[in-house]
């Protein structure tokens, strides 16, 4: 049975069929294939509102005692980073409970077609510069879930996320009216929804950063200096 058949059952939220099929094929799944399946389920179908369903699915898959510390082919380079990506503290806590290391260092280049060589430190007059160059390269390449959360937060505060101010009906009479509603255009409403989601993501990510730090999470740069 192929992974896409398993994923279809997840998409349909058919836990009983999933449990039956997984019991048949799990012994033929290598740890690597199981890890890929777990990542695909989270990335494609995870829904915070259905956490109970997904936690039951994860319980069965992780029962094989697979490692949860591995790099994944995603902008969020690890499972914990993926939980941050979905702003899901429930998923984050679940993964920690199942053994994920909060300071696992993921490699964002792990799935590059050609292996990328790190800049080497040479034994010459420019050794200090070479060390700095190598360290800067590694900080960009390697990351913990805290690195990912902080990078997301910085991105959200960048100019790329600057919104124009919505132009609403500024007729004062609208505000003085006893009517509890007023009209705006679809485009204005869409912009407001965008901005609400944007501000919500900023708050959630900021809170996630504080939460990770409270649990002992560190950046890659701090870890290599210790």
How would you portray this structure in words?
By secondary structure, this protein is mostly helical. It has two domains: 3-104; 127-225, no CATH class. The chain contains eleven helices and two strands, in the order ααααααβαβαααα. It has a two-stranded antiparallel sheet with strand order 1-2. The radius of gyration is 23 Å and the shape is globular. The model is unreliable at 125-129 (pLDDT under 50).
Order of helices and strands: HHHHHHEHEHHHH
Terminal CA distance: 46 Å
Q: Would you report the number of β strands?
A: 2
Number of domains: 2
* Largest sheet data: 2 strands, antiparallel
Describe the strand arrangement of the main beta sheet, using strand numbers. 1-2
Helix-strand makeup class: mainly alpha
- Outline type: globular
The averaged pLDDT comes out at 84
Low-confidence runs (pLDDT<50, min 5 residues)? 125-129
| Helix-residue proportion | 55-70%
Count of helical regions? 11
Radius of gyration, taken over Cα atoms and rounded to an integer in Å: 23 Å
Strand content: under 5%
Briefly characterize the structure.
Helix content is 58%, strand content 2%. It is built from 11 helices and 2 strands; from the N terminus they run H-H-H-H-H-H-E-H-E-H-H-H-H.
């Amino acid at each position: 049975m192929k992974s896409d058949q398993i994923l279809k059952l997840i998409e349909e939220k058919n836990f009983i069929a999933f449990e039956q099929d997984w019991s048949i094929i799990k012994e033929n799944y290598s740890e690597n294939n199981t890890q890929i399946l777990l990542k695909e389920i989270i990335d494609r179908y995870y829904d915070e509102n259905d956490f109970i369903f997904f936690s039951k699915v994860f319980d069965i898959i992780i029962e094989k005692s697979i490692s949860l510390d591995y790099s994944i082919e995603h902008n969020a380079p690890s499972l914990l980073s993926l939980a941050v990506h979905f702003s899901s503290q429930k998923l984050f806590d679940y993964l920690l409970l199942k053994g994920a290391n909060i300071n696992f260092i993921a490699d964002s280049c792990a799935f590059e077609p050609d292996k990328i060589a790190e800049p080497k430190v040479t034994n010459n007059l420019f050794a200090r510069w070479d060390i700095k160059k190598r360290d800067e390269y590694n900080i960009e390449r390697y990351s913990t879930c805290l690195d990912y959360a902080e990078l997301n937060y910085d991105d959200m505060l960048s100019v790329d996320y600057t919104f124009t101010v919505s132009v609403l009906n500024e007729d004062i009479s609208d505000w003085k009216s006893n009517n509890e509603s007023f009209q705006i255009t679809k485009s204005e409403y869409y912009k407001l929804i965008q901005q609400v989601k944007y501000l919500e993501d900023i708050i959630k990510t900021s809170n996630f950063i504080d939460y990770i730090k409270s649990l002992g999470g560190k950046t890659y740069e701090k870890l290599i200096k210790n």
